[in-house]
C-alpha cells in the first residue's frame, strides 16, 4: 500500500464544478454568436469557425504530444500520451478557437478570404502554442490567447483583417456603404462612427446586426446578450463586470465625442452608437471576464474593469480603430501588479471587532 502523504494548498473546498464544466458553459454561451455569424455572413463564416477550432485543438495536441515524449523511442509511448491528452483535455482550446473566429471578419474577395484561412490557422497556432502552452497550459498563460492571436493576425495579415463582407441581411445606402468600407469611418469598418460620433446605421441596426460590416461574432448584440445572461445565471462570470465596463466605456466615449474647437456638448444620444459598435460588447462579456488573465480579487477586478473601459474609450477616440484586443493585452500585463498590491481577503477571514475601552 502506498503510504505517501499528499499535501495540497488550502483552502480545501469540494465542488462539483470543474474546469471542464465551466468551459462547457462558455461554449454554450458562444453558440448564439456562432450561429448569428453564419446567418449574417454565410458559409465563409462557418468555414472560418470550423478551421479556427480545429487548428487550436490540433495545436494543443501536437504541443502536448511532443512535450510528453510522443515521438521518443520511435513513438513507443504514443498511445499512452494520446490517452493522457484526452484525460486532461478541458475544452479551453475550443473556446480560444471560437473566440478567435468571432473577432475576425469575413473578407469580401476570394483572394483575401484565402489569406484569412491561412491567417486563422497561423493565428490559432500562435494563440495556443506560443501564448498558452509554452507557459504551462491552462491557467498559466500571462495574456488572453484569443486576444493575442487577433493582434498577431492584425499585424501579420492587415489587409485581410480590415476587409469586410456585406452582411446577407440589412442594407445601407450606397454612400454610407462607401464610407463603411473605406478608411473614412471611425472604426475602420467595424464601428461605423463618423467624425461627429454619429453612425449611418441606426442603434436598432447596430443592435440587430443588420447592415453591419463587422467581425463574425460582434454584429448581432442579441446573441451576445443571450450568452451574457446564460453565463451570469450559471454564475460563470460576475454579472456586474460587463455592465460596469459598458457603462463606464459609454460615458467616457460620449464625453470625448463632445469636444470641438469652439464648444463642448455632452450628447447622451451618442451612447448607444458607441457601445453597440465594434467589438466592445463582445469583449466585455467574453474576454475581459477571462479567469486566468484577470485579477483574482473583487477590488482588483474593479480596477481592471474601470481602467480597461476608460483606456479603450480613449484609444478608440484618438486612434479611430477598434483596439479592444490591444487594450486587453495591455491590461493583462498589469494583472500581476494589481494582484500584488490589491490583495483579496483570505479565505475564511473574519475581521476582528474593536474592543471598546472602558471609561475611567
How would you explain this protein's 3D organization?
This protein is mainly alpha-helical and 360 residues long. It has one domain (19-341). Helices cover 59% and strands 0% of the residues. The protein contains 16 helices and no strands. The chain has helices at 19-41, 43-67, 72-75, 78-88, 92-102, 110-132, 145-156, 158-161, 174-181, 203-208, 221-233, 240-257, 271-276, 280-286, 298-319, 324-341. α2 (43-67) runs antiparallel to α5 (92-102). The protein is globular, with a radius of gyration of 23 Å. The protein starts with 18 loop residues before the first helix and ends in a 19-residue tail after the last helix. The relative contact order is 0.11.
Features:
360 residues; 0% strand; globular
Topology pattern, helix = H, strand = E: HHHHHHHHHHHHHHHH
Main beta sheet: strand number and arrangement? Answer: none
Q: Report, as a whole number of angstroms, the end-to-end distance.
A: 66 Å
Beta-strand percentage range: under 5%
- How many individual domains? 1
- Cα-atom Rg, whole angstroms? 23 Å
Oligomeric state as shown: single chain
- The average pLDDT score comes to 84
* Broad shape: globular
Discrete helix count: 16
User: How many strands appear in the DSSP assignment?
Assistant: 0
Structural class of the helices, strands and pairings?
mainly alpha
Which stretches are low in confidence, meaning pLDDT under 50 for 5 or more residues running?
173-186, 188-192, 194-198
Please summarize what this structure is:
The chain has one domain. It contains 16 helices and no strands. It has helices spanning 19-41, 43-67, 72-75, 78-88, 92-102, 110-132, 145-156, 158-161, 174-181, 203-208, 221-233, 240-257, 271-276, 280-286, 298-319, 324-341.
Amino acid at each position: 500500500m502506498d503510504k505517501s502523504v499528499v499535501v495540497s494548498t488550502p483552502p480545501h473546498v469540494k465542488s462539483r464544478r470543474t474546469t471542464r464544466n465551466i468551459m462547457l458553459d462558455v461554449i454554450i454561451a458562444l453558440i448564439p454568436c456562432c450561429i448569428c455569424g453564419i446567418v449574417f455572413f454565410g458559409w465563409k463564416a462557418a468555414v472560418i469557425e470550423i478551421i479556427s477550432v480545429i487548428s487550436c485543438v490540433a495545436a494543443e495536441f501536437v504541443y502536448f504530444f511532443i512535450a510528453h515524449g510522443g515521438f521518443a523511442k520511435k513513438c513507443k509511448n504514443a498511445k499512452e500520451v494520446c490517452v493522457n491528452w484526452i484525460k486532461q483535455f478541458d475544452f479551453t482550446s475550443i473556446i480560444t478557437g471560437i473566440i478567435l473566429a468571432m473577432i475576425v471578419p469575413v473578407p469580401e474577395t476570394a483572394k483575401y478570404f484565402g489569406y484569412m484561412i491561412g491567417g486563422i490557422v497561423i493565428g490559432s497556432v500562435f494563440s495556443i502554442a506560443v501564448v498558452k502552452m509554452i507557459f504551462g497550459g491552462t491557467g498559466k498563460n500571462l495574456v488572453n490567447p484569443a486576444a493575442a492571436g487577433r493582434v498577431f493576425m492584425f499585424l501579420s495579415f492587415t489587409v485581410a483583417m480590415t476587409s469586410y463582407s456585406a452582411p446577407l441581411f440589412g442594407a445601407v445606402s450606397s454612400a454610407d456603404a462607401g464610407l463603411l468600407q473605406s478608411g473614412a469611418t471611425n472604426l475602420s469598418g467595424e464601428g461605423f462612427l463618423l467624425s461627429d460620433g454619429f453612425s449611418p446605421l441606426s442603434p436598432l441596426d447596430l443592435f440587430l446586426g443588420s447592415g453591419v460590416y463587422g467581425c463574425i461574432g460582434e454584429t448581432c448584440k442579441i446573441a451576445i446578450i443571450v450568452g451574457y445572461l446564460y453565463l451570469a445565471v450559471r454564475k460563470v462570470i460576475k454579472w456586474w463586470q460587463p455592465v460596469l465596463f459598458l457603462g463606464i466605456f459609454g460615458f467616457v466615449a460620449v464625453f470625448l465625442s463632445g469636444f470641438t474647437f469652439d464648444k463642448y456638448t455632452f450628447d447622451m444620444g451618442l451612447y448607444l452608437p458607441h457601445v453597440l459598435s465594434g467589438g466592445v460588447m463582445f469583449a466585455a462579456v467574453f474576454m475581459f471576464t477571462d479567469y486566468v488573465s484577470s485579477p483574482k480579487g473583487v477590488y482588483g477586478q474593479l480596477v481592471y474593469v474601470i481602467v480597461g473601459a476608460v483606456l479603450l474609450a480613449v484609444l478608440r477616440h484618438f486612434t479611430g480603430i477598434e483596439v479592444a484586443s490591444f487594450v486587453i493585452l495591455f491590461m493583462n500585463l498589469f494583472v500581476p501588479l494589481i494582484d500584488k498590491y490589491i490583495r483579496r481577503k483570505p479565505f475564511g477571514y473574519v475581521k476582528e471587532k474593536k474592543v471598546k475601552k472602558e471609561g475611567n
